[in-house]
Amino acid sequence: MPTHNLAIALCAMALAAPAAHAETAPEARRAELLRQRAAIDAELRALDVLPAPAAIPVSATGDPDDIVVTAGALTLTTGVTGQTDTTITDRAFRTTPATTIADIVKLSPGVTVIAGNGPRDVGVSIRGSNARNSFGARNIQVFEDDFPVTQPDGLARFDLTDPHAYGAVDVVRGPSSARYGNYAIGGAINFRTRRGRDVDGIELGLDGGGDGYANLYGTIGGAGASHEYALFGSFARADGATGHTGYETGTINALATVSLSDRDRLAAKLIYNEGEFRLSTRLSFNQYRANPYQHGCATAATKAPGCGTIAVLANGINGPRILQTAAEGDLARNDRRTIAGARYEHDFAADTVWRTQATFDSRVVNQPTSANPFKGTLDSYNVTSDVTDRRRILGMEAVSFVGLFYNYLDNQSFTFNRTRAGRNGFGAPLQTVFGDVRNMGVRAREELGLARDLHLVLGIGAERSILNVRQTAYAYPLTGGATLTLIPALRRFANVAPEASLLWQATEAVRLHARFGTGYGIPQAGNLFVTPAGVPGNNADLKTQKNDGVDLGVELTLSDTLRAELTGYYEWFRNEQVSQSAGVNLLAFTTNVPRSEHRGIEIGLNWTPLPVVAPGAYVQANYSYNDQRYTRYVERLTSGAASAAFDRSGNRIPGVIPGFVNARLGYDRPDGALAGLGGFVELTWRQRYFIDNANLLRVPGYTLANLNLHYDPPGGRGWWSRLTFFASVQNLFDKDYIGSASIIADSVNAAGQPNPAAVLMDSTGSIYAGQPRTVYAGVKSRF
């Protein structure tokens, strides 16, 4: 009998106990009921962290009420059959500061997060997929309530969302283009907002903390027989610990669903965010060691040792450059994001569902973040239509799926020279990029129950992509007028991605899966117009990056209180796209690596070690190991007249953290007057890793400790049960550490010999310091 059914049966038996027994031994009976409830609470907590390996359904859609408007349609991201995935519920983060989505996704095996460009931005990587990128997400597909928030150019950002809006997060790991199409090299993440029925009224919260952090947020939600809605809003601000960093950002997030009839359902989605961000400069390794938090960097003329600077053109056109600190230049970003979507489902029959979804996504950016400010409007449109059919084929339970998709991005972007006039110091234009990105294709999937405990999944996706963009590059010689160079790029790509997986419920306690998956990602438009010299020009020969991967995994239920998952993966990459700095005051460029290999291990653990003595005690942990190397790559480095080629085969891919651990040791009081009182100690360990292709410079690893105390009482106990409190200390021992390190370019001397690590340590534009010790506290009330 599955564990949760056993728990329910125990409750029923307890409630059905003879009244005479309760009358003769009320205290003993009460103690027995409390013990049973504590065991059930511990079991529910375990289920919230790792999915129980119950008998495998043909399609693991979970609770049919979990996503209201899905009915019989195949879910996109939740409970994906045959794939390595993890779901993190809000039980794990609702009593934490959750200042960024890093506080959520790091709880999944295989996921690493790094600091992005500013104190709220984070870069998210699944199996190293996005490790070389210094902001947002590349090479993974991101969704919210199954609506896409990755635009057709492959970029998603995480500083424009508020974790307080979410009830769960699904992380799908491994190459997944058969299911998600372009850019699903590493997998997918789906953020699920809280359901209206769970809110059932109004919730208001206020969090505060060090460096001026404050977040005022609220949710209104409810549900009826045929409808459900939830509306979230927040305003957050903070001054970063690093000099000249901070933000103010507001978010609105809504999801509404309605049943139009017995056969028709509709869902509507809205996300709106606008953010104002102050940014510091990224540092060299030596600058970080001298002044990690950029104190005393108000002006270049009086700056303290270790202050980062940018070099701007005095007149914004040509001629000499002057140095400015981040404060002098007022480096900043102002971004606005609007996403609106609708999803319609119709039941042709009891077992056949047609689903059509349309999403509009507008990203407006104004980013004077460096010596080359950037502005752009990127509007995109995404349409999908699919049919799911559930029936028996040759006596086997089967789920059949086929769908069409189309997405379009209108790219209008501008890059400028910078003047000394601060945030609004936009000088002469440096380049414009106009054009569009189109992806269209078909997906098909078949899930077959070969036997009661053995299931086969087959899938394939085919996609046609068109990049039609035009760059105009501006040059300003010291004598004569400006020169303009038009560089058109019309690239067409055709990609096919098959997948296959086999699931076997070997015993009630052991579930195994084996999977072969494929992924692909075409170049982004911006990759095509920066040469390896770091200047505007034709880089239009970039190829699609592709990976083929194998996963072998097992999920174990070793007892009612111990669950674990273990996955090993091996992936082969062709033409992996890597972004690399060309040097100071030059643009980053993208190149293809002919061959590389990614392999690793992912472990997740959820353990209630003392179910009788201390049923509220728990251990939650995950460990990941990534061994990612170039297997065929020759890199050419140039310095003046000197030029030399270097074989990087066998070198580790820079930016990829080889080993990392996240672990929580906690206790939540399950019963009595103090039910809901608890806390945990959280440990984060990161192994040191290289940040250059030659593997000469390695940033140190670190171990951080966080402490959390909270009170989240169960409902129905009086007015105080409507309140939740928490206090948290992040980086308890105030450890200095590198929160983010962009890849730096190796270099050669005048004789063509590689410069050593001592030289690379002065390469700027790489490092942000991690957050020092910070105290947070919050309160939330329900009405």
What integer value in Å does the Rg equal?
Answer: 27 Å
**CATH superfamily name of the largest domain?**
TonB-dependent receptor, beta-barrel domain
Q: Report the total helices.
A: 9
CATH topology of the largest domain: Maltoporin, Chain A
Number of domains in the coordinates?
A: 2
Portion of residues in beta strands equals over 45%
Layout of helices and strands:
Elements: H1 3-15, H2 19-24, H3 26-49, E1 84-89, H4 102-105, E2 111-115, E3 122-126, E4 141-144, E5 147-148, E6 166-173, H5 177-180, E7 187-193, H6 196-199, E8 201-209, E9 213-223, E10 227-239, E11 246-259, E12 264-278, H7 285-290, E13 310-313, E14 321-324, H8 326-329, E15 332-349, E16 352-367, E17 374-393, E18 396-418, E19 426-451, E20 454-475, E21 483-507, E22 510-521, E23 545-559, E24 562-580, E25 589-607, E26 617-632, E27 634-639, E28 642-647, E29 659-668, E30 677-686, E31 689-690, E32 698-699, E33 702-711, E34 723-730, E35 738-741, H9 757-760, E36 767-769, E37 774-782
Parallel strand pairs: 4-7
Antiparallel strand pairs: 1-6, 2-3, 4-5, 6-7, 8-9, 8-37, 9-10, 10-11, 11-12, 12-15, 13-14, 15-16, 16-17, 17-18, 18-19, 19-20, 20-21, 21-22, 22-23, 23-24, 24-25, 25-26, 26-29, 27-28, 29-30, 30-33, 31-32, 33-34, 34-37, 35-36
Helix pairs in contact: 1-3
